[in-house]
């Protein structure tokens, strides 16, 4: 039972992070390799808002999340917009450079030590028994709930709202969407904002649960295979992919070797790339347009 | 006329320079070999790789393990490292036949973590948890030891690698790589076997990188996974970007730039008031500076240092 709970928690972490990869890829065909760093930046912003804005957890979280959203928009406006028309290679290299820049800045500003935003916000993180002796920390429970809310909101947004439909249109056929008067720059900026927002939420909740240091971006990288297994352009796929990856990872850690944790998602990734590179729910023709 | 002059420029410095400078030169020479091989893969053949640190680690660990387990000599470990690199390049290049661009980037990233995991497992299981020690190699009865000797060995290795790359790039293979970089569909319509040349680029680049890794292991006399973090891969990418995509000479300029930059930053930080205040954050400054410089080059000078050199020559009335 405990194993099942662990799988769900890890899957929620991966899913909450990987929806950022999926959104940006779906809309602009760019792979954002700075996503892990942006997520970490969000978690560090929480430290700052906790110290300077409000020690009320809800307020501090909300302010930090909104700040992250604007960071995402700024990254698009100041950096990624200028890569429009360049090759995919150049855009991906730009995100790598951005990632290393953020890592450096984060370490400079907040130091490399392990820090605990939960302590700064005076949030208790008791372990809760849910059923049949399976235990889960309160923050993990909160993370699972957040993940569910975020995904429901994203599905509703993409299916029902005007902006969501424009976003899908921009992803499906950029040229036609532009000709129909859709403000592509606005759509891309919004996508980067939402993606960084959800990533930051994940970062903050992980930091509240288990502390924060500058190697958090590794979790962001490990979430990428989840997105790819499900299909890089499918949100639903990201959920399924996260479940698959976390199930395999938790089982192998339990029964084989804890050291495997860092490498399992990537082994799954290789297997997937060889067998079915477009993922379980991804569309195959997308690949030709990369 | 040029050749002897060049030889003098290369051969004389180690007799005058301090051990620190010789070590710096050796680092630069090793980095240049890695940068050349990444330039072939990314700059010429247009395939991105985030796993170059992993490939170097593969070469270094092959050497370390062969030396520790079988006390294999230099003449066996070096080709074996190359073969190990080639095998990894083949396996991790396979996805590139079906997928392009971004997918490949993550496949090579996976390669990095898989190799490092393997290396760490070996270190732990065999009780070398702090790293594997390697004795200096013996060549023709001479023990290669000390910075000055290594300098000449590495100069020879770099010249060989450069010559090999130059020959490949300016031949059929290089033209095929450039074609599949520019437009894979057109390349295959022109009768180029895209799959074969992509894999060739991977295998060639990986084996050179792994050999560079093996040389690195011998030069340091020590192998440990810590030396091959993902930051090292990013440094190699920085060399290619800063040097200028598609230029072999650019790769060497890029390596020069990237190897010197941390020392320049450290020197600059020392000049600032309150130097000891920053002492702990040199690493972080390095990261940030690397990111900023890479972004600056990508945005404002995608053709890199090689492109700048071309501009200069144009300005002074000579065709580049």
Helix content, binned percent of chain B: over 70%
Please provide the count of β strands of chain B: 4
Structural category of chain A is mainly alpha
The pair of chains with the biggest contact is: A-B, 45 and 46 residues
The tally of strands of chain A reads: 2
Q: Uncertain runs of chain B with pLDDT below 50, 5 residues or more?
A: none
Question: What is the fold's blueprint, element by element?
Answer:
The complex is a heterodimer of chains A (about 290) and B (about 325).
Chain A: H1 2-28, H2 35-52, H3 57-78, H4 88-110, H5 117-120, E1 127-131, E2 134-137, H6 138-160, H7 162-172, H8 174-179, H9 184-210, H10 217-230, H11 235-255, H12 264-275, H13 286-289
Antiparallel strand pairs in A: 1-2
Chain B: H1 2-11, H2 13-16, H3 19-44, H4 52-70, H5 74-93, H6 95-98, H7 102-125, E1 132-133, E2 138-139, E3 142-143, H8 147-169, H9 172-182, H10 184-189, H11 194-220, E4 222-223, H12 230-243, H13 248-271, H14 275-278, H15 282-300, H16 304-315
Antiparallel strand pairs in B: 1-4, 2-3
Helix pairs in contact in B: 3-8, 3-11, 3-12, 3-13, 4-5, 4-7, 4-11, 5-11, 9-11, 12-13, 12-15, 12-16, 13-15, 13-16
